[in-house]
Amino acid sequence: MAYVIGVLFASAVYMMLRRSIVKLVIGLMILSNAANLLIFTVSGMTRGSPPLIPEGLTEPAGVVADPLPQALVLTAIVIAFGVLAFAVVLIHRAYEVVGTDDLDKMKDTDT
Amino acid sequence: MSHLVLIPILIPLLAGALSLVSWRSLLLQRWIAVVATGLLLLVSIGLLQLTREEGFVVMHVGGWAAPFGITIVADLLSAIMIVMTGVIGFTIAIYSMAMTPERHERFGYYPLMHLLLAGVSGAFLTGDIFNLYVWFEVMLLASFALLTLGGERAQMEGAIKYVTLNLFSSAIFLSAIGLVYGTVGTLNMADLAYKLGQVEHSGMVNVLALMFMVAFGIKAAAFPLFFWLPASYHTPLVGISALFAGLLTKVGVYALYRFFTLIFNGDVDYTHNILLWGAGLTMVSGVLGAAAQFEFRRLLSFHIVSQIGYMILGLALFTPLAIIGGIFVIVHNIVVKTNLFLVSGLVYRLLGSYDLKKLGGVYRHRPGIALLFLVSALSLAGLPPLSGFVAKFLLIRAGLEVGAWTVTGVALLVSVITLYSMLKIWAEVFWKPVPEGVNTERLTGEKPDSQLWLLLLPIAGLAACAVLIGVNGQPIYEVLEAAAEQLLNPALYIEAVLGDQP
C-alpha cells in the first residue's frame, strides 16, 4: 500500500508540473486520493471486522477496525469532490475566457 | 455560558441561509449582512469579556467529552481574532452596500460572504485538527467563488493559481493529519499536545511539524510559498480584496501560532529557527516585490506578504514579549491593511483606475480622504503614535532582548522600505496633479455621488481604530500579555479542555 501511495503522490506532482490546466486538475484529483489512502494506511487497516458491538455485550469482541479514519476519509472525499467540481468548472471557464490551456501563457497577473 | 462560544460560528451560517432564502430581494440581503455582522461584532466582544474573566471557554459539541467529541475552545487569542473578524465583517458589509455592482450581488455575493466569515470563525474557535481542516475548506470554497465572481480574464488567471496552491496545501495538511493520527491516535489539539509530549522518537514529530508548517505557510503566504497571493488578490472586487487581505492569510498565521505554541513545542531550537529564517525572508521579499509595483492593489498585496513576516517573527522568537508583539502586529495589520484596500477602492470610484500613473490630485480636491489614507499608511510603516509603532516597537525590543541582531536589523530596514512605498502611493495618488485625460467629474464633485458616505464611514472608522490602538496601547497590551501567557503555558489549555489528567 505504501508503494501505491508513493506512486500516486509522485504522479500527482508530475501532473501538476505540466503546463496544461487539464493535467493540473487531474494532478489535484490524484493528490487528494493519495492523501485519503494515506490516512487509511497509516492509521492501521483492519480487514473484515466491522466496529460493531454484538448483542448482549457492552464492548466489541476481539480486534475491530478503527471507525475514525473511515469517517475522516469519508468527510475528505466529500470535500474533495466539491472542491474539484469547482476546479473543473473553473478551468473550463478559464479556457473560454483566456482562450488557451497553457499555464505559461497565463501570466498577466504575475508581472 | 459556554454556549456563547458557538454563536460566532452560528450567526454567519444562519445569516448565509437567510440571504439564500431572500435571494430575490437584494435590499433585504444587504441589511441582513449589516445586521448579522453587527451582531457578530457584539457577540465577539462579549466572548472576549468572558475569556478575560474565565481564561478559557470550552464547549464539547453534542456532549461528547474531549478527546472523543469535537471541542470548540476560545482562549484569549481566539477571542481577539473573533473580535477582529467581527470588525472587518461589519465594515465590509457597510462598504459593500455602495461598492458592489448589482450583477455581483445577484450571483450570491452576500451568502458567500457569510459562508466565508463562518469558515474563518470556525477555524479560530475549533479545538480539533480535523475540524480545523473542514473549516479551512469551508473558507476556501467560499473564497474561490468570491474570487471568480465576475469572471474577468485576470480573475480567472489569478483564481487558477490561488485554487491550485491552496488545494495543494490542503492535501499536505490532510496527509499530516493522517500521519498524526497514525502516530499518536488522537485529533483533539489538547490531547495531541499532551500525548506528543510523551512520544519518544522526535524525528517523526519534527517531520509532522514541518508538514504542518508548509501547509499553513502556504495559506499564510510565507516565503517561499507566497506567489499565489500577489497574483490573485488584486483581481476581485475591492470589498472582497479587503476582506481577503484582512482575514484569510491571518487564519494561516493563527494556525501557525496555535500549532507551534501548543502542539509542537518540544524542539523549539529546530522548528522555530526555520520559522525565523522564513520570517526574515518573507519580510524582505514582500517589501522588495512591492517596491517594483505600480498598481495600487498589487502593491498592497505585496505588503501583506511582508507584514506576514513580522507576525511569524513574533512566533519564531518565542519569548513572551515577542508573542505579544506578534499578536499586536496581527491585530494592527488586520485593521490597517483592510483600510488601505478600502481607500484604493474609494480612489478607484473617484478616478476610475488602480494604476498609480493614471491617478493624482486627490489631496487637492479631497483632503479628508488623503488624511484618512495617510493615517493608515503611516501606521503600516510604523510611525508613532499610530498602531503600527507599538506593534513594531514590541517586536524589535523582543528581538534585541534575545540578541537576534540580524533579523531585528532586517525588520527595521523593511520598515523603512515600507515607508518608501507608502510615500510612493502618497506622491502618485494624492500629491501630484491629475494626469491629462482623466475624468475628474467625480473627484471634484461636479457629478454628485450620493452613496459616497457609505464608503467613507468604514474607512474613517477603521482609521479611528488604528489611532485608538496606537494611543491606547496599554490596555490592549495587557490583554495581549494575558493571551501570550496562555499560549506559552500549554498546560493551561490542556487542563481546560481535558480536565485533570492522571
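The radius of gyration of chain A is 20 Å.
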